[in-house]
Specification:
By secondary structure, the protein is an all-beta fold. Helix content is 2%, strand content 47%. The strands form six sheets. Strands 1, 8, 9, 10, 11 and 12 form a six-stranded mixed β-sheet that branches. Strands 2-3-27-26-25 form a five-stranded antiparallel β-sheet, with no helix packed on it. The chain is globular and about 60 Å long. The N and C termini lie far apart (58 Å).
Length: 396
């Protein structure tokens, strides 16, 4: 029976390509403006020398409190190891809070610790009824002896010697103080892989979910076919994340692969997904459905960056943000029109270019008020301690 070795491109692992088609410019300094965006300042959100902090998401609660979730794991270098690891059996999900988006609680609260392995990439969604959804996924390190006994095919990471557990969903009805779950989504039909117990692998992905005007929850998930070629698919929930149904293929190709994605519904009713790619010159992609998610078409956006997060602004334009894992490493943004049709011409704005290497990014943005936005991400300077940081910008 065929089994699968991991070709999934983990957060922080990247093949670098030469720069193409970019006009050199420097990052905005505090107080500087370009293309209607003024940078206010960079802020430190969370840092602790004993921990590797990464992969944030953030929402604004109905009571105007900000809730930020991230993945925390031991800082292995502080324990004498040579490198940081993204797959760690001790990684878990935590939250911090703020009243203004600038000053955050210092001691994180536990969101969830998976009973069978380490968790990654908590992705928050604030629903209109005040409840919260958080999606994540996990890994379980295994010995060679245990791996040999597993029912195949499985999703196996060779460097980390870990088995993928698949995705799960958590829900909170009290502002993120208590969480129920995990609720396990369906598998993507094309994906033959199994979890560590021999069950169909639950759907998974990193990226922003969306609540539509009619109350559906949209989630663009990742999957691998029998050849383990990555593609993106739309799942839909009509019961606030408790259960999911398969809708359609979002993006697939014979060579390019698609993974981490954020999705939204435009004012005109289109569903638009922003996709991370592999085997596509590191180019960001956009996929669009004009029939409510029954089918999509995708195309390259003409620039490098991943993964992308999309935030609707009060004037209905869309702020997309992304990490830039080529020199100069940092954080970048563009503002698209409401229907996201001008991605090829929207100017790129460099928010930061002082990153210390490729292990950074995973942006997530939230409105502070009608014209100010906090862009959150994880970062390192001079290849040092990974931490959660942010940039506050003002949009005219």
């Amino acid at each position: 029976m065929k089994h699968f070795l991991c070709t999934f491109f983990f957060p922080g692992v990247l093949i670098a390509f030469p720069l193409q088609g970019l006009v050199a410019q420097s990052a905005l300094k505090p107080g500087e403006s370009v293309h209607g965006v003024r940078k206010i300042k960079d802020i430190m959100i969370y840092q602790d020398s004993l921990f590797y902090a990464a992969f944030p998401s953030v929402v604004k609660r109905p009571n105007r409190e900000f809730l930020l979730a991230f993945r925390r794991a031991p800082n292995l270098q502080a324990m004498g190891e040579k490198n940081y690891e993204h797959i760690d059996p001790n990684s878990y999900l935590v939250t911090i809070r703020s009243r203004d988006g600038e000053v955050w609680t210092k001691n994180p609260d536990l969101l969830y610790a998976h009973p069978f392995g380490g968790s990654q990439d908590p992705c928050l969604l604030q629903l209109r009824d005040g409840s919260l959804i958080c999606t994540s996924y996990g890994w379980r390190p295994v010995s060679q002896e245990a791996y040999d006994k597993l029912k195949k095919p499985v999703f196996y990471s060779i460097p980390s010697k870990a088995i993928f557990l698949g995705g799960y969903v958590l829900r909170s009805t009290d502002g993120g103080h208590q969480w129920k779950g995990p609720y396990y989504p369906m598998r993507v039909p094309i994906d033959p892989k199994l979890d560590i117990f021999g069950n169909p692998l639950p759907a998974y992905n990193r990226g922003g979910l969306w609540e539509t005007k009619d109350g559906r929850i949209l989630w663009v998930v990742a999957a691998g076919n029998e050849d383990n070629r990555g593609s993106a698919h739309l799942l839909v929930s009509r019961d606030k994340g408790l259960s999911w149904k398969y809708s359609s293929v979002v993006a697939e190709d014979e060579q390019a692969e698609f993974n981490e994605a954020s999705v939204l519904e435009t004012p005109g009713g289109d569903l638009v997904a922003f996709l991370r790619t592999a085997n596509y010159d590191d180019q960001a992609c956009i996929a669009r459905s004009k029939n409510g998610g029954k089918s999509f078409s995708w195309q390259g956006m003409g620039f490098k960056g991943h993964p992308l997060h999309a935030l609707p602004l009060p004037d209905k334009r869309i702020l997309i943000t992304y990490g830039y894992r080529h020199k100069p490493f940092g954080i970048r943004t563009r503002i698209l029109n409401a229907e996201c049709t001008d991605f090829a011409t929207a100017p790129e704005i460099i928010l930061r270019d002082d990153g210390g290497g490729t292990d950074l990014g995973y942006t997530w943005s939230v409105l502070l008020n009608n014209n100010r936005v906090l862009v959150c991400y994880y970062f390192n300077i001079d290849a040092g301690l990974r931490h959660i940081a942010g940039t506050i910008i003002e949009i005219k």
